[in-house]
Amino acid sequence: MFLYHYFEKEREPFLSLSDLTDEEAYKIHNDLQEGNNSFARRNADGRYIHWRRMCEATLHSLFIEKGGEPIRKTPHYMTLGENHYCKTWYKCGDYIKIPIDAFDTNTVSFTYGDSFPTIDPTHGQTEEFRRTVYKYDEILQIIAKYGWPSAKWDDENTPYWTPMYVEAQVWSDTPIDEYKQLYYNM
């Protein structure tokens, strides 16, 4: 089993708006919007960074309640398993894949679907996996119960909150820093 991190090849992997000050994050996010970047779509009220920080604080808190041991205040985002949909987010995408065994799984939480709509289900979803994070053994049970999220994004009418992948939130820089170096040395 592998965790995948997708990114724009012309940029560094594992960049995160959450690691920046609000001022820096809003500037970059506004630049992404002007460039019609797919990551700027969730900003209808102009408060995406605010909502993102609230979502990440909730993820952090829920993970600690589950017995998780986050080291970072904000996570690195990955997917559990390969996901062809995530590749479509980039003009010239690339990925880093890391075996799950390389991680201390006490520093990795999972959501069944993208964490943003999973943690903030404002559209009336009541599935058991909403507003919930899982540890590794728990997400495997959810996958066994519901299956791998399917790729329904070919239909432009599919609501964005439909689970499309299992997201992993990595709350440590280990082994990410090591795999970034390996990527650059390839």
Summarize the structure in words.
- By secondary structure, the protein is an alpha+beta fold.
- It is 32% helix and 16% strand.
- The protein has helices at residues 22-34, 48-65, 84-87, 115-119, 136-146, 176-184, and strands at 2-8, 76-80, 93-99, 108-112, 166-170.
- A five-stranded antiparallel sheet has the order 3-1-2-5-4, with helices on one face.
- It is globular, with a radius of gyration of 16 Å.
- The two termini are 22 Å apart.
- The mean pLDDT is 85.
Average pLDDT for all residues: 85
Tell me the helix content. 25-40%
> What does the largest sheet look like?
5 strands, antiparallel
H/E element sequence: EHHEHEEHHEH
How does the overall form come out from the CA principal axes? globular
Total strands: the figure is: 5
Specify Rg, calculated over alpha carbons. Answer: 16 Å
Beta strand %: 15-25%
- Distance from first to last alpha carbon: 22 Å
Instruction: Pick out the low-confidence regions.
Output: none
Query: If strands are numbered along the chain, what order do they take across the biggest sheet?
Result: 3-1-2-5-4
Q: What class do helices, strands and sheet pairing give?
A: alpha+beta
> Total number of helical segments?
6
